[in-house]
Design a protein that fits this description.
It is a single chain. This protein is α/β, with parallel strands linked by helices. It has a single domain, classed as Rossmann fold (3-Layer(aba) Sandwich). It has nine helices and nine strands. The strands form two sheets. The chain has a seven-stranded parallel β-sheet, with helices on both faces. Strands 5-8 form a two-stranded parallel sheet. The protein is globular, with a radius of gyration of 20 Å.
Length: 275
């Protein structure tokens, strides 16, 4: 029986994934910044669920969560870095304090969790690390530069980590979900306080007051959870997994655009060696 530690389980994809894993009879350390928000879920599975308060930007809580998980269940077999939030602002509008907080959660918090579970995984020569990214890494929509930068950083870390830990029997995977019916576009997103009028037709269109996506996303989080479980348990766990037809379309379109640029500039790109 595997033990999963999932961050950000109060709502959305994290909660759907925790529920699906618990329904399979596996152990789950169900975490959120407030343990009360996941207490009801954990109470349904008293033998296999452990509810913990975890702010991934708090080093003491990160250490304690992993220690308590290992004490209760013996090991952390699967870490899912799902905790995170969005931030919308034109690059020029971005507020330094908000940008630092965003990176602290979405990047450095995930790294702290990875570093906390790896000693145990290395000792057992097994384990899986799953980092939730975003199709925004491919789309780079206006107004989401800082958010997509955090996810691009996380994907870069995941790619290197995957190569470092593969010889040790450990897997690492990044996931790019499309638009799923969660509160990401509502409660879980913030934005710059002062918009600049010159960006009204680009970044401005994606401000929360103009957003019609919240509550209308096509994706089912429960179905996404089952895809993640299948990928984790596969002998061929991918390094990067898209979930949702919109994510697949976005990645394919981005690859086509990149290929077009590469081919258009190929002769100049290739002509830089010392003769």
């Amino acid at each position: 029986m595997a033990t999963w530690l999932i961050t950000g389980c109060s709502t959305g994809l994290g909660r759907a994934l925790a529920t699906a894993v618990l329904e399979r009879g596996e152990n789950v350390v169900v975490t959120a910044r407030s343990a009360d928000s996941v207490g009801e879920l954990a109470a349904k599975y008293p033998d296999t669920a452990l509810a913990l308060a975890l702010d991934v930007t708090n080093p003491a809580q990160v250490t304690a969560a992993v220690e308590q998980a290992e004490e209760r269940f013996g090991a952390v077999d699967v870490l899912v870095n799902n905790a995170g939030y969005g931030y919308r602002a034109a690059v020029e509008e971005g507020e330094d304090e908000q940008i630092q907080k965003l990176f602290a959660t979405n990047v450095f918090g995930a790294v702290a969790m990875i570093k906390a579970v790896l000693p145990g995984m290395r000792a057992r020569r097994s384990g899986t690390i799953v980092n939730i990214s975003s199709m925004g890494v491919r789309l780079a929509p206006p107004g989401s530069g800082y958010y997509t930068a955090t996810k691009a950083a996380l994907e870069g870390i995941t790619g290197s980590l995957r190569k470092e830990v593969a010889p040790l029997g450990i897997k690492a995977m990044a996931i790019e979900p499309g638009a799923f019916r969660t509160d990401f576009a509502g409660r879980s997103i913030s934005q710059s306080a002062v918009p600049i009028p010159d960006y009204a037709e680009t970044a401005g269109k994606r401000r929360k007051e103009h957003d019609t996506l919240d509550g209308n996303q096509p994706g089912d989080p429960a179905k996404a959870a089952h895809v993640i479980i299948e990928a984790v348990n596969s002998p061929n766990t991918p390094g990067l997994l898209m979930i949702g037809p919109d994510a697949l379309s976005a990645v394919r379109a981005a690859h086509d655009a990149e290929r077009s640029d590469i081919e258009a500039w190929e002769s100049l790109s290739a002509g830089t060696d010392i003769n």
